[in-house]
Amino acid sequence: MFYIHCPYCDEYRDEEEFHPKGQAHIARPEDPESCTDEQWGAYLFFRDNPRGIHHELWVHAIGCRKFFNITRNSASYEILETYRMGEQPRFSAEHPEGKSAEQGAAVNVADEAGVVAGQEGVKA
Ligand SMILES: [Zn+2]
């Protein structure tokens, strides 16, 4: 059993409250009517299955019921961050150590440093 940080509730909650919904950041074709069958089929059915860092869509099903993204290492199961819809991930296969704030990192990073910084902010 482990805990997942919900970026909307801003709490670590039991994994059983969440459901994975597959690969994140899949762009719907801008004009579905002009897609080829191959393009539409690729959008609907084909997903990456990388070994290492990738991004997943999850929902806090027994909680706020909002969708958010998780950056996870599929080899170690480590969750590197969670972030809200519309935000960009800090970690990626191209940036395994994480982007700096200047490079457009996500605001809600679910690492221990973020939690400590947040708690210190409350005490101050
Ligand atoms: Zn939540």
TrEMBL record:
GO biological process, one term: tetrahydrofolate metabolic process
GO molecular function: sarcosine oxidase activity
InterPro entries, per the entry: SoxD, SoxD_sf
Signal peptide from the UniProt entry: none
Annotated Pfam families: SoxD
UniProt xrefs under NCBIfam families: soxD
Name this polypeptide is given: Sarcosine oxidase subunit delta family protein
